[in-house]
Design a protein that fits this description.
197 residues; Rossmann fold; three-stranded mixed sheet; three-stranded parallel sheet; binds magnesium ion; binds zinc ion
């Protein structure tokens, strides 16, 4: 299973649209508060509420500015991973289509309101481990052993519940601090070679 933002994509799509179409002051004030004074859902909901653009404007911007990491197409064809994201179907699926890839996606929904956009979260029950409505439940729902690939805050709890973890960036630092096992990865070519070996 793959996280999407910062894992498949080289740039976080929600951060990208908030900085381009939303309120940067809200982003600056709240993003560092995740896991401190705010839950991830509270921060995402607040950021999404500032978006002032049509879905077409947002997806066009992402299609123009957000590349996927090297080797994603090959890995997707070989392993058909499920995407488990704290982001949005509406922002993920156009990028998958651009790459000519069809994968199962577990993510949230962007819902239009009269005034703008609202986040509708797919996971709403608090996780028994971390207390937030995190990705762990969706990741383990199939009951089969899970290899999980991630990079950031939204992956912390899920990574501790996976059977095999590939981590980079904040997720790798966080697992280091806890002495939790993981394998490093840089791009999907390297990841595919490690899995095959
Ligand atoms: Mg991520
Ligand atoms: Zn959790």
């Amino acid at each position: 299973m793959l996280d999407w933002d910062g894992t498949v994509t080289e740039r976080d799509t929600l951060v990208a649209v908030v900085l381009r179409f939303g309120d940067k002051a809200v982003f600056d004030r709240l993003d560092g508060e995740i896991g401190r004074t705010q839950t991830q859902h509270q921060v995402i909901a607040a950021e999404v509420a500032t978006l002032d653009a049509t879905l077409a404007e947002m997806t066009e911007y992402l299609l123009d500015t957000v590349p996927v990491r090297a080797g994603f197409r090959e890995l997707a064809a070989c392993h058909q991973p499920t995407i488990v994201s704290a982001g949005f179907h509406e922002l993920i699926e156009p990028l998958l289509a651009r790459e000519g890839i069809e994968l199962d996606v577990h993510a949230n929904r962007l819902e239009p309101t009269g005034a703008g956009w609202r986040a509708v979260f797919s996971d709403t029950r608090p996780c028994p481990v971390c207390g937030e409505a995190c990705k762990r439940g969706a990741m383990l729902a199939g009951g089969a052993p899970v290899t999980f690939v991630g990079d950031g805050v939204s992956d912390y709890c899920a990574a501790l519940g996976a059977d095999r973890v590939f981590a980079r960036d904040w997720l790798a630092d966080w697992l280091d601090e806890r002495g939790a096992p993981y394998e490093s990865w840089h791009d999907f070519h390297e990841l595919a070679r490690t899995i095959a070996s």
